[in-house]
Amino acid sequence: MKSLLCCLGREKRKWREIEAEVERLDQSPTWDAPDNALMMQAFEWHVPDDQKHWQRLQSVLPSLRQIGVDRMWIPPGCKAMSPSGNGYDIYDLYDLGEFDQKGCRATKWGTKEELLELTRAAQKIGIGVIWDAVLNHKAAADYTEMFPAVKVDPKDRNVEISSPQEIEAWVGYDFPGRGEKYSSMKYHWHHFSGIDYNAVDNQNAIYKVVAPNKGWATDVSKENGNYDYLMFADLDYSNPEVRQDVMKWGEWIGKELPLSGMRLDAVKHYSFSFQKQFVDHMRRTHGPNWFVVAEFWRGAPGELLDYLQKMDHKVALFDAPLVYRFSNFSRTEGADLRKIFDDTLVKYKPQHAVTFVANHDTQPGQSLEAPIASYFKPLAYALILLRSEGYPCIFYGDLYGIKEGVKNPLAPSCGGKLPHLALARKLYAYGMQRDYFDKRSCIGFVRYGNLRHPSGLACVLSNGSASKKRMFVGRKHAGERWTDILEWNGETVMIDDRGYGVFPVSARSVSVWVDAAAEGRDMFGDFYSDIYKH
Known about the structure:
Elements: H1 2-26, E1 39-41, H2 53-66, E2 71-73, E3 79-80, E4 90-92, H3 112-124, E5 128-133, E6 137-138, E7 143-153, E8 156-160, E9 165-172, E10 192-198, E11 203-209, E12 233-235, H4 240-256, E13 261-264, H5 272-286, E14 291-294, H6 301-310, E15 316-318, H7 320-330, H8 345-348, E16 353-356, H9 377-385, E17 391-395, H10 396-400, H11 418-428, E18 433-436, E19 442-447, E20 457-462, E21 467-472, E22 481-484, E23 493-494, E24 500-505, E25 509-515
Parallel strand pairs: 1-2, 1-17, 2-5, 5-13, 13-14, 14-15, 15-16, 16-17
Antiparallel strand pairs: 3-4, 6-12, 7-8, 7-9, 7-11, 10-11, 10-12, 18-19, 19-20, 20-25, 21-24, 22-23, 22-25
């Protein structure tokens, strides 16, 4: 009993210290911070194949900025292997929808002129454009070449399962539609380390190129023994001509378009040392604030942390482990919400974690599908948008729905409330954070605001039955009436003289509580008006 009383005493002292700290910060003239940052992935896999996506995005720029988006990750805009290609099947880095190649002039997304209009319009209203850089491979070569190669075990690429043989493969690139504009580089078999098809015997397999000083890169993921090879014709970054051409492209595209950064696709599949050189080169060329986020897809944080160390922590990473946590928790009855951030990147390296709920690879029907129960999507978005840790990215398919390419069209997620959660981030999710992770099926947290955004908020989440949580929001709010901006709970919470409120949440839901008279409450209207019908 004595030890229990001591424990309770320590707990009370801790809460009193936190309350005192909140009161002290309330009076501090230096307690301030810039507006919250928010990224949006501005596409999903099944965006209409109509070459009008750059136009669509330009039309919604004002509404995106209104809810707080200040960076927009656009799809790979380089020429793909076909008019319908999403750009990950990349053919020519230097063709942004300018040349008649692979069946059309425009990319799936539109023409280069429309891309320029989009990026300039985004820059004008304060939205930085993030380019999706696909640098691991090339697709849809212009002709075949003969060269020596050896077949390897797909489950362990270090194991050769055939003798070296002459194969015929699609590895010749001369870009006839573009010629030598922007770059005179032509690609041949010695610029690649692997291929997946031999035209001699019409066989699909993973072939490693055999030649002096050739082989898989060693500074890649160790999955499958060595995960240098992913798809198509695998670029060899030990070749100085390849390195030089891609470095030159990085200089070129950052001058051709008003970009503010890049997403590096499939980074676990090509040389980490080259990536580090490339990032350094981009920042020397385009400025020290050039933003880089890398996609290293792994369900546990260990390899992600190793990669950050190898990159000298010069990049951010998408928090794939967190997405799997969301997926598993949403489909596990009685999952312990207090542990939602265990084994995630945002737990260990919040300043380098780009948090997200879904993307083009995890959406229904895709190769890395990570289904999240519909009731849990708002909880997941509240956890990435309203907390202090991580840099959140919202998904086009969640914001606008997915209408094509799926058996059942998907309406905008979160019951259409995702724009409200984003706007709550923009207006209220500032300052010191206090967690109430004290119940297995119901957790909460409070943000106390800062000088420019003094309102703060209280968030309560449940993956079980309806519940309530008593939380301290600050004595300055005494007497205020707080309501749920999502309108999923119709109660009004009165803040008592000590600065506490008892905040309810409905079963398997989330509520975000803010003073009913707080600045900006009138902005939570219908975000799916005509401006969103595109």
